[in-house]
UniProtKB/TrEMBL annotation:
Belongs to the D-isomer specific 2-hydroxyacid dehydrogenase family. CDD domains: 2-Hacid_dh_10 (cd12171). It holds the Pfam family 2-Hacid_dh. It comes from the Bacteria. This is 2-hydroxyacid dehydrogenase. PANTHER family: D-ISOMER SPECIFIC 2-HYDROXYACID DEHYDROGENASE CATALYTIC DOMAIN-CONTAINING PROTEIN-RELATED, D-ISOMER SPECIFIC 2-HYDROXYACID DEHYDROGENASE FAMILY PROTEIN (AFU_ORTHOLOGUE AFUA_1G13630). It comes from Bradyrhizobium brasilense. Residues 63-345 form the D-isomer specific 2-hydroxyacid dehydrogenase catalytic domain.
Length: 346
């Protein structure tokens, strides 16, 4: 009897791409069914401000709908579908879940362990996309690309941006601080080296690679990084330790006139404190791609500040991200069906 695989994708992580990669990795003798969710055309649920579903974060789909679709499938491949404890109790045949994300925030991991369901993920799937986007974000702020663009669209020729007291600085003369040295943070370090800037890294849980040490990258404490960096870019995970850790105290320690970049997760930042730091001029500017509440409210105060660039959580969005994640998930399916150990167990 062929194994039954349920695929819940969306309009970014296309179910058809998942299915194509799984068939390529495992052959055609599989019972595959697919469901396409409407994200990102419709927003997902965010549990950071209080989850509606057993503490899960960043998910899409109602439990009854998801359970009905999965049915008697033994394997689930998904991007955003939630799997909570109460859902697992209604899915007794489910034995394997592949989540095409860097972290299984839409899965109750303790419940999965209690039900002997193996969960795997796809770490680093969007590392290249986010790292490249981060470099673009830094340049947009430090070289006044956003400021010049907004003025010109409004009919104003900002010749004053060429003035020595107003123009931007080159990355080669700046110090950039990377908070978090995982798949994305380490990739940002690699890209920044081409600009010749001084690079600082703050991450208490990892050591720098030998190559980065040889290239002059410094591993420092967060407080030192904040005080020395002209640009601070966040690449940490959301944990109890890092939730809102960029708050008033941290922002006060940041070098006056520095720039803050957040392409990681919204809950890392205290946005009221960030607003005040930007409005007062203590921070030179900020570029934010992620927020504690998404979509952001239309009357959100940060939308009205002239020294901040905002994008709708698109740093990790690239065509390559889709194919890399689908390929990783397919390999995990193949290994599970072959009785081999997983590469990326959660």
């Amino acid at each position: 009897m062929s194994k039954s695989i349920a695929i819940v994708g969306d309009r970014f992580m296309l179910p058809s791409v998942f299915a194509e990669h799984i068939r390529s990795a495992c052959g055609d003798g599989l019972d595959i069914r697919t469901l396409e969710q409407p994200w990102p055309d419709e927003p997902m649920e965010h549990g950071y401000a209080g989850s509606k579903l057993d503490g899960l974060k960043e998910f899409m789909g109602q439990p009854d709908e998801i359970i009905g679709f999965i049915g008697d499938a033994e394997l689930l491949v998904t991007h955003l579908a939630p799997i909570s404890r109460s859902m697992l109790e209604r899915l007794p045949k489910l034995k394997f879940i592949a989540v095409s994300r860097g972290g299984p925030v839409n899965i109750d991991m303790q419940a999965a362990r209690d039900h002997n369901v193996l969960v795997v993920n796809t770490p680093g799937r969007n590392a290249g996309a986010v790292a490249e986007f981060t470099i673009g974000a830094i340049l947009a702020e430090t070289r006044l690309i956003r400021s010049g663009h907004e003025a010109l669209r409004g009919g104003e020729w900002r010749g004053d941006l060429y003035r020595a007291d107003r123009t931007g600085r080159e990355l080669g003369e700046m110090t950039v601080g990377i908070v978090g040295y995982g798949a994305i943070g380490s990739r940002v370090v690699k890209l920044l080296k081409a600009f010749g800037c001084k690079i600082l890294v703050a991450d208490p849980y990892v050591q720098l690679s030998a190559q980065d040490r040889n290239d002059g990258v410094e591993h420092v404490a967060l407080g030192e990084l904040l005080g020395r960096a002209d640009v601070v870019t966040l690449h940490a995970r959301v944990t109890p330790e890092t939730t809102r850790f960029i708050g008033r105290e941290a922002l006060a320690r940041i070098k006056p006139g520095a720039f803050l970049i957040n392409t990681a997760r919204g809950p890392l930042v205290d946005y009221e404190a960030l607003h005040d730091a930007l409005a007062s001029g203590h921070l030179g500017g900020a570029m934010l791609d992620t927020f504690a509440v998404e979509p952001v409210p239309a009357d959100w105060p940060l939308l009205r500040l002239p020294n901040v660039t905002l994008t709708p959580h698109i740093a990790g969005a690239s065509v390559r991200t889709v194919t890399v994640a689908a390929g990783q998930a397919a390999e995990e399916v193949r290994r599970f069906l072959a009785g081999e150990p997983p590469r990326n167990p959660c």
